[in-house]
Every structure is written in C-alpha cells, then in structure tokens.
Amino acid sequence: MTETAPPRRALAETELKAGAIGLGSVVMQSIAHIAPAIAILFTVQFNTSLAGVAAPLSYLVAFLIVLVLGIVLGELARHLPSAGGYYTYVSRAVHPRAGFWTAWMFILYSPLVAAPVLTAIGSVVETTLQTRFGITFPWWLFLVLGVALATWVIYRGIELSARTAVVFATAEMAIVALLALWGLLFPGPGGVNAAPFLPGNISSSSGFFLAVMFSIFAFTGWEAAAAVAEESRDPRRNIRLGILGSILILGAFLVLTSWGILIGWGTSDVQTLIESAELPGLVLAQRVWGPVGELVILLALINSAIAGSIAYLTVGTRMWFAMARSGSLPKLLAKVHPVHRTPVNAAILEAVLNLAVGLGLGFAIGPFAAFVFFGIAITFTMVPVYILGNLGAFLFFRRERPQDFNIVLHGILPLVGIVAVLGVGWVSINPLPAPPNDLAVALVVVWALVGVGILVAMRIARREEWLLKAGQLAAEVSVDERLESDRLDHKPN
User: What confidence tier does 490 reach under pLDDT thresholds 50, 70, 90?
Assistant: First the structure.
C-alpha cells in the first residue's frame, strides 16, 4: 500500500529563511508588537484624561476601525507576501514613489518605537526600584540593555524571535487579564456597571476622538505579521489570518481590561485615576494583590517592553531589507547573515537609531514625556499610511486582479477605512493637543515634507532605477523581472 505524501505548503522565494514559522508565531509576532501590557497600562490613564469614564468605549471604537483596516490589509497580504509590507503594497498598487513615501512615514513608527517604549518602562523601573527598595537603576541603562537584547535575539534568527514572542506575550496578557478580573471582582466606588460603554458619558467630542486615535496607537502592531511573510509557512494564508487573529484577540483584550481596570479603580472616582502620580495599574495591583502585586505588574511591563522591542526591530529590519533589495536604499542593508538568514546590517542600523532616539528624547524632555509625545506622533504618522494602504487595495484588485474584485472587500471597506481614519484624525487635532504634544503633529508634517523633498531630489538627480523594482515580490526581484514601464505611469494595457 502506497503512502500518500502530505500536501506541500507554499513557501516564499526569498533570501530570508523561508518556512521558518507557522500561523501561531505569525499571530504572536503581531501581538508582541502591540505590547499588550504597555498598550493598556500606559494608555488607560491618558485616555481617561481625554474621554473620562468613557475611555473603554474609545478602545471599542478604535477596535472597529482597526478591524476594517486589518481586513483590507489582509486582502493585499494574501496576494503580495513580502517582507516590505506597506512599502511593497503601496509601491505595487499605487505608485513606487507613494510606496517610498509610505515607508518614509513608517520609519517614525515601527523602526523607532522601541526607543520611547524602553525609555518609558525604564523610567517606571527606576522609580519603583528606588522608591520601594532603595535600588538605583537608571532608565537609560534599561534602554541600552533592552536594545542590546532585542538586537541579539533578532540577529540569531526568526525562530528565536518567534518563540520569545509566544512566551512573553502570553505571560503579559495573562497577568493583565487577571488584574482586570480582580478589578471586576473587587470593584472600587461605583461598583460594576456599564457606564464606560455609554456614549452619553462622553464629556468632550474632541477629547474622545483623540482618545480613539491614541487607542489606535495602542492597537498599532497588528500589521507586523506582514513583515514576516517571506519567513512564514503558507504566507498567502497565514499572514492574512495572523493579521485578523491578532486584531480580534487584542480587541477583546484592550476593551475588557480597560473596563476591568476602570471598574477596579472606581467609575465614580476617575479623577483620582487621572491625577495618579503612579501608573493606575501598579496602584490597583497593590490594592487587590498586596505589595507583591506591584512587582508582578512591573515584571509584566518589563516583559512587554522586551518582547515588543524584539517585534519592533524584526519589522524594522525587514522593511530596511526590502527597500534595500529593491534599490531604494543602499544595498548594504540587504545583506543577510549566511547562517541565521537575518538582515544583519539592518539590525545594526536599528540598534543605533533606537539608542540615539531614546537617549536624545529621554534626556531632552524626560523618558515618560518622550513616550506620550512619540505615541501621538506615531498615531498621526499612521493616518496617511493606512489611507494609502486602503487606496492600494482598491487599485490593486481593480487593475491587477479584476477577476477577484469584490465590491465589499475591495471597494466599500477601503472607503470606510479611509473615511474613519480621516474623520477621527481631523476631529482629534481640532483643536490641537495641549503643548508640548501639539509639536508632535508638527513633527509629522515636517517629516512628511522631508520625504517628499527626498523624492524630488532623487528625480532631479535621475536616481530612480529603484522604481522598477519597488513593488516586486522577492521571487520577482531575485530573477530581475522588470515591471513594465506602463505600470509606473498606470496606463491601461
């Protein structure tokens, strides 16, 4: 009797280590990138200051918006499995120059976000150890050690990065979920109620929608699955499922834990939560679990910062790698380690940039202030990225795969995503955030203009050979198949 061979799963053709990780690791790559413990414990106080008791509702609205964005991106990932993520999608579907500009905006996000995260957690570690135990451990040392550890893990290979993400992200989510559960079991003033989800409790529309924008920042990372497409088994299936799975899991997590923390603190006493000098999660943990509770939450935050940084650097290195491979950045960044199959020079660049940004911002305005400032900047940075991604989905299926075009998935949902992101973004900056965070919006505008300036300079210098490869997949680049010149101008066939 002959034995039937199992069906072969599709692998990406790439210089990276194809087929190294499965669906579970893809999901956890995105979840670790979101850094669940930090996403809730570091945003719930700020969101409550903006939305009042309706803060959990802001997470719910953000979840619905992000879900639409995720469905659309998943459709692109299904047909364009690439380490370049948005860079490849927008280059292919809209225009290579738009793809470069999208990647330029994305630089303010994933490649650099480890810096403010590690400085902020370093500040919490420094304060807690000094106050509770009399131990001096400066925030900048936590930053240096965190960047060093994350760089070493991603250098060693995608399998180690993925295993770390699975273990660390699961642990931190379990700890914070237990804290929220204890908050519901032992509520503060006001008891257990649904007030946080009632629109009538929104005190300010601009404040609420800024909270929604900041909640979208808490979700950012769901698109990180796209960056490991070339290293995933069956990427056309797993990346799409990884994106949607991470959004659904984190949506439930952020909405329910924000509610549990607010109930545990007391919905009739939210002003003291807003004014708390310590993170409300640390204070609540000490109340419901005793002295050991604060230490447990501190460990969850440290865990979250390290796992998140590994995920941030993983995405950043793959973006640099994909851009260098296509020729829009120096080829040096496309170098892959011969044994570990990781973008080694891109990893070094990531480490240097995050140390420079973290130390510079941390010493200039303070580590926690740097986190809030950078968080607002990142959130507004992602507005044009999400818009171009949604536009790209519509154009890709209309032009390249008209036989697969679905009016709901590729027409209505991208439009809903664009309108939602634009609307929430506009309401949240009208009026601008209070100083100095208003400068975060100015930073995004200046950064965007610099990106346009670079494109103009490259056009004047006639250095645009990379345009021919910007939207190609790894296999297309490897055999040097040129995109047709009419694709650059999007002329009909």
Answer: very low
Distance in angstroms (rounded) separating the CA atoms of residues 209 and 433:
11
Q: What is the DSSP string of 56-87?
A: HHHHHHHHHHHHHHHHHHHHHHHH---TTTHH
Give the integer Cα–Cα distance in Å for 323 and 341.
17
- Any residues with CB less than 8 A from the CB of 30 and at least 6 apart, and which? 221, 222, 223, 224, 225, 242, 243, 245, 246, 311
Residue 261 near residue 179, CB atoms below 8 Å: yes
The reported pLDDT for the residue numbered 266 is 94
Residue 493 lies in a domain: no
Domain for residue 430, yes or no?
yes
Q: 64 in a domain, yes or no? A: yes
Residues spanned by the domain of 137: 23-471
Cβ–Cβ under 8 Å, residues 104 and 451: yes
Note if the bond before 280 is cis, omega within 30 degrees.
Answer: no
Contacts of 377 (CB under 8 A, 6+ apart): 108, 440, 441, 443, 444
Continuous segment of H or E residues that includes residue 359: helix 344-365
Residue 460 tokens read as 């004047």
Q: Confirm whether 479 is domain-assigned.
A: no
Residue 480 falls in which region: left (phi positive, over 0), alpha (psi -120 to 50) or beta? left
pLDDT of residue 20: 64
Residue 457 structure tokens: 């300079």
Q: What are the angstrom distances between the C-alpha of 28 and each of 163, 246, 412, 486?
A: 9, 7, 29, 39
Determine the Cα angle at 99 with ends 98 and 100, to 5°.
90
Domains in the chain, number? 1
CATH code for the domain in which residue 196 is found: 1.20.1740.10
Coil, strand or helix at 156: helix
Q: What is the dihedral of CA 238, 242, 243, 246, to 10 degrees?
A: 170
29-61 pLDDT, tens digit per residue, is: 788 888 899 989 988 998 999 899 999 999 999
* Angle of the 44-51 helix axis to the 235-265 helix axis, nearest 10: 70
Task: Give the separation between CA 128 and CA 344, rounded to whole angstroms.
Answer: 36
Backbone phi and psi for residue 7, each to the nearest 5 degrees, phi listed first: -65, 140
Q: By the 8 A CB rule, do 63 and 255 touch?
A: yes
Contact 50, 258 (CB under 8 A): no
Amino acid letter, residue 469:
K
Q: 111-143 in b/e burial notation, b at 16+ Cβ within 10 A?
A: bbbbbbbbbbbbbbbbbbeeeeeeeeeebbebb
